[in-house]
Write a structure and sequence with these properties.
Blueprint lengths: L6 E6 L3 H14 L6 H9 L4 E6 L19 E4 L24 H11 L7 H13 L4 H11 L6 H11 L7 E2 L6
Parallel strand pairs: 1-2, 2-3
Antiparallel strand pairs: 1-4
Helix pairs in contact: 3-4, 3-5, 4-6
């Protein structure tokens, strides 16, 4: 069953402080009082929202503190911490996504970047990029897509990727009509 959302909110939960800052950004973007509680109350007054709590890998971080006390929306948690499954409403609502194989990662990167997949130099450089990205499909697709508009070959892209690994933007994507 497909869901459509009026708004999508992205919370980076790499640390408690970063998660709190992400909530405050949502508050500013949505013209709410700048507090986590205010955002949670506001979400409970809306329908069809998606709250993505991303990078929730710290086992000491209690994610429940970020959940609105209502069921008008959907919460997705991304985490490498398998204990985060405790927050699922039902055990069948958890999904484990494995890393890609090296070959699949290289193929995905080169296809997304519109590079020849039979070029051995591109494949070797692609292997370095996908290893740097931890063989994670979303990161590989984004890396391949970024290399197209930059009109960069993959070799300098490896340095760009390594430099960007530590940069994690906080995103609040707000759809029209929810305010």
């Amino acid at each position: 069953m497909a869901h459509s959302y009026q708004s999508i909110f992205w919370i980076d939960a790499s640390t408690k402080a970063i998660a709190e800052q992400s909530f405050l950004k949502v508050a500013r973007e949505c013209n709410q009082e700048e507090s986590i509680e205010s955002v949670k109350r506001w979400l409970c007054s809306k329908k069809k929202w998606l709250l993505i709590i991303d990078n929730a890998d710290d086992p000491s971080l209690d994610l429940a503190q970020f959940f609105p006390a209502c069921d008008q929306g959907t919460i997705i948690i991304t985490s490498r911490n398998q204990d985060s499954r405790q927050y699922a409403s039902h055990p069948s609502n958890t999904y484990h996504v494995d890393r890609m194989s090296v070959e699949d990662g290289i193929s995905l990167l080169l296809k997304t970047a519109m590079k020849e997949s039979n070029d051995e130099v591109s494949r070797q450089l692609g292997a370095n990029v996908v290893e740097t990205l931890g063989y994670l499909a979303l990161a590989i697709v984004q890396a391949g897509a970024v290399s197209i508009p930059l009109l960069k070959p993959i070799s300098p892209f490896l340095e760009i990727t390594e430099a960007a690994i530590s940069y994690k933007p906080t995103i609040c994507a707000k759809a029209r009509g929810i305010e």
